[in-house]
Design brief:
mainly beta, Immunoglobulin-like, Porin, 2 domains, about 5% helix, elongated
Length: about 375
Amino acid sequence: MLAALAVAAQLTACLGNDDPHNSGFTFVKPTNVRTYIYANTTSDSLIMLSLGPWQISSDTPEAQWVTIEQMKGIGNAIYALGVEFEPNTTGKARLAQFTVRDTEYPNDAYASWQYLQHATRGDGSMGAAALVKSIKSSDQWEVGISYDTKSRPMQLVVRSPEGSREEYRMEYSETSSLLSIRTPDGTVTGTMDNGYQSERLVGSGDTIGYTPQYYSNGVQMSVSAAFNYVSSSYKRKLAYAYLIGGKDLSPDSLHTADSLVYLCRWNVPPAGSTTVPEQTVERYKLEYSQTDNRYQSVDVNQLFLGMENCEPLQLLSMFRLCRSTSIVKRATSGSAAIDVTTELNADRSVKRMVVKDSRKGTEITYDFEY
């Protein structure tokens, strides 16, 4: 354990050299001076070795949103302390700094660290974003969603006009950092970050996740320029290529995809078969309104192609990078256009969304309940 402490720690104490007394700290966690957490991240841990008696103090009086399990202790001991965070519903990122000092030699042995909590949750929505419980469309689709106490989706049910039902269930393991989702095609799992999101989910018959490579004229582009979101199973393959244009994709940043390439391939033949699968490929240039897409839990942009073409995990924003922070106003493909208008609630969440498709001559209304 002591060897692990020495290797893992990047955050160490300042030590005086005037007196060879036995004091100082070594940290296993946090490993950096600043730890970044999301608006709905509620817990972490502090692991340190202290050679002398110690006490922790807050350097930011407004940091009551952080609670450390124990604020003082004895020397020659290893401490593993729980750290709790209140959800950030302020609409702004916030910072808390703490310092631990040797109580016998406070000017010689001390260390400081920070927690920066983003204004947004791990799914890209604002910390106080309203939780969408149901979506009903004028073409008779229905979506029902339930959440846990951390505003994470726990269940999603999609009902089609024909009466078919698809269900998704999410399980989050805090101890193993494992995200498990039961889909209609089977269970997929992956390692999640402290925003409760995974970049890749894998199951026996399905693979879902980001592919941070996109090729333009044979040249690979970086993820900040473009990336693919792919859901592939033995039944079908869905691929969404988001062209970002080098925008900042960090939490709390404002970013929109310039265009979208949508591919749906079904009746996928087994490996080695010469049968050509059926597929649809559509390309859209995207224009955006001034309406923010982060004040409700779901990504409403996923609905402009219709519920039959909506990928449920993207609707839930289980893959944050796919959420543009503004709501699409128009999507054009050649001479055809899809126009989107929204009506908002007082808290800026979407109350109603209307999608007009000039190609199909349709107008679909989506009503959101919270």
